[in-house]
Amino acid sequence: MTGAGRAVDEILRLREEKGLAIMAHNYQVPEVQDLADIVGDSLFLAMEGLRTGADTIVFCGVAFMAETVKVLNPEKTVVHPVPDSRCPMAGMVDTETLMALKGENPGAPVVTYVNTTAETKALSDICCTSANAVKIVRSLPDERIIFVPDQNLGSFVQRMVPEKEIVLYPGYCHVHMGISLEDVERLRREHPEAEVLVHPECTPDVVDASDHVYSTEGMIRHARDSDADEFIVLTEKELAYRLWKVTGKRAYAPDATCPNMKKITLEDVLSAVRGLEPTVEPDPELMVRARIPIQRMLDVGRGDEG
Ligand code: 13P
Ligand code: SF4
Q: Residue with the nearest Cα to atom 7 of ligand 2?
């Protein structure tokens, strides 16, 4: 047996023995996705964190996702194998800029993408993910809304909800920003039969050149239900593996890699299930405040578009 095979066996044995839940985001490397019992997008993982009966969750994704699960489940132990696996977009919000935006737009609620820290969430009215952003914004009675931090997702929401005014924050995902119109044109030329699915963190020109806009899990659900056999997925490249695994259909992605999602290796998961550390320990007072906008989001629910 190979070293990787031995590590997988040991992880699965310890998972059983200790009654752990192992969760992985759709962008994790295939070998980590394969040993997780729950795989999905950020919204699905947050909801599954509440549903799982396990007292300890080993979370394979970036830090804000593990933190969200902990905030929703303060009584559970959440282990994040590589704490340095962080989404750079979450680090783009600074409190002063956000407070200044609030001051310039008195009364406007702050809708915060889950790709943020607990500090940012604590200053927000309601959270959203790419799966439910349109639904969340439509659910609010207000005409003007501050949207933090992804400007591309915010622009997409603005186009879907033209009756409201969306005040954007200048944040972005470097991985999705790197996907260009030329990538879409080349992939369409190479796979003329494929349907083109795009993540709303991509730039508006890339979104316009695509057939459907979805969160990562939404892409998989669409592919499962579609008559098409091939898909171009304009998002992080590992989604192509996950889509194929779930649906048996082929998917092609541009060369877009999230280096932070790739920091968690099989060896890191093994070490995490052995020692049940490092654990996620946000400030308790911050957790209480950050929970409110996340819970409000879950009360509105998953969007049809997602
Ligand atoms: P999803 O919510 O679609 O999984 O997206 C999370 C993310 O980080 C996208 O880059
Ligand atoms: Fe953050 Fe982009 Fe990586 Fe998603 S793909 S975790 S938004 S850097």
A: 173
Query: C-alpha dihedral over 242, 87, 66, 204, to 10 degrees?
Result: -60
Indicate the residue type of 210: S
**Ligand closest to the CA atom of residue 200:** 1
Pairing of strands 38-40, 20-25: parallel
Report which ligand 2 atom has the smallest distance to the Cα of 176.
Answer: 2
**195-213, pLDDT tens digit by residue?**
999 999 999 999 999 999 9
Residue pair 1/38 in contact by the 8 Å Cβ criterion: no
**Same domain (yes/no): 153, 190:** no
pTM exceeds 0.85 for this model:
yes
Cβ of 66 closer than 6 Å to ligand 2, yes or no, is no
pLDDT tens-digit series, residues 115-164: 999 999 999 999 999 999 999 999 999 999 999 999 999 999 999 999 99
The parent domain of residue 135 ranges over 89-173+285-301
User: For residue 203, is it within any domain?
Assistant: yes
Question: What's the rounded Cα separation, in Å, for the pair 231 and 253?
Answer: 9
Ligand 1 site, residue 41, Cβ cutoff 6 A: yes
Q: Amino acid identity of 181?
A: L
What is the number of structural domains in the chain?
3
